[in-house]
Amino acid sequence: MAGIRERQLQKRKQETLDVALRLLMEHGYANLNMDELAEEVGISKPTLYQYFNSKDELVAQAMVRVFEKMEEHLSELSEKSPLEQLEHFLRLMLKSRSEKRNIMAQMDVEVMHSIVQRYPYMTEHLLATRLKLGQLVMKAQAQGEINPAIPAWVVVNAVFSLQGILHNPFMKTDPQRSDQELAEAIESIVHLFKQGVCNEIPLQTTILN
Amino acid sequence: MAGIRERQLQKRKQETLDVALRLLMEHGYANLNMDELAEEVGISKPTLYQYFNSKDELVAQAMVRVFEKMEEHLSELSEKSPLEQLEHFLRLMLKSRSEKRNIMAQMDVEVMHSIVQRYPYMTEHLLATRLKLGQLVMKAQAQGEINPAIPAWVVVNAVFSLQGILHNPFMKTDPQRSDQELAEAIESIVHLFKQGVCNEIPLQTTILN
Amino acid sequence: MAGIRERQLQKRKQETLDVALRLLMEHGYANLNMDELAEEVGISKPTLYQYFNSKDELVAQAMVRVFEKMEEHLSELSEKSPLEQLEHFLRLMLKSRSEKRNIMAQMDVEVMHSIVQRYPYMTEHLLATRLKLGQLVMKAQAQGEINPAIPAWVVVNAVFSLQGILHNPFMKTDPQRSDQELAEAIESIVHLFKQGVCNEIPLQTTILN
Amino acid sequence: MAGIRERQLQKRKQETLDVALRLLMEHGYANLNMDELAEEVGISKPTLYQYFNSKDELVAQAMVRVFEKMEEHLSELSEKSPLEQLEHFLRLMLKSRSEKRNIMAQMDVEVMHSIVQRYPYMTEHLLATRLKLGQLVMKAQAQGEINPAIPAWVVVNAVFSLQGILHNPFMKTDPQRSDQELAEAIESIVHLFKQGVCNEIPLQTTILN
DNA sequence: GATGAATGAGCGTTCATTCAT
DNA sequence: GATGAATGAACGCTCATTCAT
Fold first, then answer.
1. Could you tell me if A92 and A72 are in contact, meaning their C-beta atoms sit under 8 angstroms apart?
2. Residues contacting A160, CB < 8 A, separation 6+
């Protein structure tokens, strides 16, 4: 069997995706160019195009990989309570973001949209992940962990958007945050999320008492 | 004064910036091209370059415009309490976002950084706005409206990042939200923010009671 | 009579030509741009185009002015011997070159050619100047001042080309020459010219003796 | 070795440089455009940019090529006397000029300067060639072949500038010179050079005798 | 008569993608 | 199967020239 070859190929492909993800994080979609990628991986451009039919497909597969990882993480947490799972998930994303290991932020909305439209299997993964998170949210709402007045999709998106706090476009000029500061920030964000979505607390009253 | 000509010019320039902002939102920085912009505004490319010395300067001015609007909004609220001001500001940003009138989210981190570096007056506006918000946050913390344990910059960035909830890269595939839904979402987000940053509420206890 | 207006116009035109000549010397034809010229002269571009129908016509007229000056210089010398006149002319050109007051060198051969073709009155001046110099050369040859074996046109061109010694494209990297050095160089070049074109001297023999 | 591919590439690159040199001569730097060049060579523009990183680098390499040829020529003559070497060199340059195979004259001083500054290896070649010629001149002066009163750099530049006699900007209108005429002109120029720089001959006296 | 404002045409450069070996 | 070499299509930008006031 040519299984050994096949496996090597898969390994190369995987490695390529990993490098692509790194470059996407470092420079964003627009600045990811196929020449640089091929060179960085150590293969030629035609080979790259044998692995992936186009830049967008490559990016789509890279994203799929990210979604897969997310789903893996979600599965590993299944014994906890829904809110705990969401918290844990958020914490994971924040950590990978603080270590610059997260593309999401870099992805241009329009680019993502156009890619999603053209690569249906990506949509599947995307929707699957959103669905799982959405179900978690609704379970949490049913159990009284999360305020049922908040639309589930808002909570799901909040999980993704809150990452932006760590590196938003307006921060680069700031002094670099120390690891210590980042760790504290992560805790604050997680706290903010939990307290923000938790079951109705009569805000004014609570504070004034 | 023959300011009629001058005024028309300023109007055209303004219109150009507006269209540029729209295109930036719709296609992102990388896909904003000067030909398209010129055509869309109804002027020729050289004219565009008479108005703005380069694409980056154009974008910088567009961003400055956004910051100016933000600062205006902030000034108009000065009689309210710090937290109320922040809430109002967040609400404004969410509204303009829900009407697709906000670039921020679309801006690639790298691109922003490079532009900010080259157009110092943009940095000024950026820092000024952040400073104002930061001071508001700290005042709110001093007055017990906001949890002083959360770093001020985290709260400031939260104000910007929470907008992402309305249009994040993973939502485009969803069915379009109705105006009704969006309005509700905005309220949820504002609530989430306020409750999330408010002074320490022993979370678990509150929920369990 | 509107003569006063007319005179002012001519003065403005003249001034424009002078500035154009300066810019031509400083940046060459390709880098002479009409915006810069207009601004430097202190008039608007449309006005510039009222004075001169096109960039090339402007350059043509500037060149004509140069030729006129040359011819003036030549006329002023008419009482001297032919060779003395040539020497004096060469010296003048070298001086204006050493003071960066000479376009000739900067003019691209092709550009000149295309301009010459389109503006016949320039050809006239060009040919007139060349003719005068050619006649001088031939007179000098008839009088035994210049070696009659050298084609007259070679001598004429030599007068122009020898200027290049002072600023040729390969010299910019050199240390700047002091005024003293330049003055010496000019004398050397004049000497080189005179000795080079003078009546046959059996070279080898002369040296060896 | 599969050097056949490699060799074809080098040939193409070489051909490109050759065509570039021709176009530089025919139209000058400013009018050398990459589209035309690519088409003339029979390759696409991106290919051109794979060969050379920029227009300026291309021109720099073309110039370097010319300097290399000059240096080769100089090396081949090492057994002759210094003045003979200079003469031979001048003759070679005149010949290649009369066959339109020489850029030098066309190069705008400003353009050259900017290119030289940016491509240090070009400066090296330029200085090396000038140095060699300068040393030849000084040797000739030491041996009494060349007038030691003339600064060496003036003689070196004369070698370059005298070429201009064959095609100076004011000649294009002339009737084309026949090959015969050109050959004679070359001899005259060489003679002019030798006699011009040779050891002091009391000019007036010699002529009058 | 003078000008602020506008433009057609072109140039240098880049990038995702494919051909030929 | 892997690659060096090639390319179509854009894009940011500039400049001589003209329109409208």
1. no
2. A93, A104, B164, B168, B170
Query: What whole-number distance in Å separates Cα of residue A85 and Cα of residue A96?
Result: 17
pLDDT of residue A159: 94
* DSSP per position, A132-157: HHHHHHHHHHHTTSB-TTS-HHHHHH
Q: Select from B123, B185, B198 the Cβ nearest to the Cβ of A154.
A: B185
Dihedral sign for Cα D16, D17, D21, D24, please.
positive
* Helix extents (H) in B77-108: 82-98
* DSSP code for B12: H
Please name the residue of chain A whose CA is at the shortest distance from the CA of residue B156. Answer: A165
Separation of alpha carbons A77 and C104, rounded Å: 82
Q: Which helix (H) or strand (E) holds A82?
A: helix A82-98
Of residues B95 and A2, more confidence is placed in B95
CB D207 within 8 A of CB C199: yes
Over residues D149-156, the mean pLDDT reads 95
Query: Strand, helix or coil at A28?
Result: coil
Q: Which of D75, D104, D102 is nearest to D18 (CA)?
A: D102
CA distance B24 to B161: 18
Say which amino acid occupies D16.
Answer: T
Name the phi and psi angles at A146, rounded to 5: -125, 140
Looking at residue D209, its pLDDT comes to: 40
Q: Which of D33, D107, D157 to mutate to test the interface with C (most CBs of C within 10 A)?
A: D157
Q: Which of C64, C132, C147, C170 to mutate to test the interface with D (most CBs of D within 10 A)?
A: C170
Q: Phi, psi at residue B198, to the nearest 5°?
A: -65, 165
Contact between residue B190 and residue B94 where contact means Cβ atoms under 8 Å apart: yes
Residue B166 phi/psi, 5-degree rounding, is -70, -40
Measured CA to CA in angstroms, residue B55 lies from A106, B16, B100, B116, B117 at distances of 21, 12, 22, 13, 15
Give yes or no for a contact between D97 and D167, defined as CB atoms under 8 angstroms apart. Answer: yes
Q: Give the Cβ contact number of residue D202 at 10 Å.
A: 9
Q: Count CB atoms within 10 A of the CB of residue A120.
A: 9
Alpha-carbon gap, residue C205 to D199, rounded angstroms? 12
Question: D31 is written with which tokens?
Answer: 């009018």
Is the Cβ of B64 closer than 8 Å to some Cβ of chain A? no
- Maximal CA-CA distance, chain B: 72
Structure tokens at B68: 């100016």
pTM above the 0.85 mark? yes
CA distances from C182 to A65, C99, C176, D110 (A): 72, 10, 10, 20
Q: A171: closest CA among B44, B151, B116?
A: B116
Helices (H), C143-178: 152-161
Task: Report in angstroms the alpha-carbon separations of D84 from C104, D158, D193, D194.
Answer: 31, 15, 12, 9
Task: Mark out the alpha helices in D32-172 (DSSP H runs).
Answer: 34-41, 45-51, 55-76, 82-98, 109-118, 120-142, 152-161
Six token digits for residue B93: 């940003």
Q: C76: Cβ–Cβ under 8 A, 6 or more apart, which residues?
A: none
- Closest-CA distance of chain A to residue B125, Å: 11
Residue A78's CB: how many other CB atoms inside 10 A?
Answer: 8
C44-81 pLDDT, tens digit per residue, is 999 999 999 999 999 999 999 889 988 998 888 878 89
Query: Is there an interface between D and B (3+ Cβ pairs < 8 A)?
Result: no
pLDDT (tens digit per residue) in A157-170 = 999 999 889 877 66
Residue D202 sits at the chain C interface (C-beta within 8 Å): no
Exposure letters B69-105 (e unless 16+ CB within 10 A, then b)? bbeeebeebeeeebbebbbbbbebbbbbbbeeebbbb
In order of start, what are the domains of chain A with their CATH numbers?
82-208 (1.10.357)
DSSP E strands in B51-129: the ranges are none
Give the phi and the psi of residue B144 in degrees, each rounded to 5: 80, 10
CA–CA dist B158, A192 (Å, integer): 9
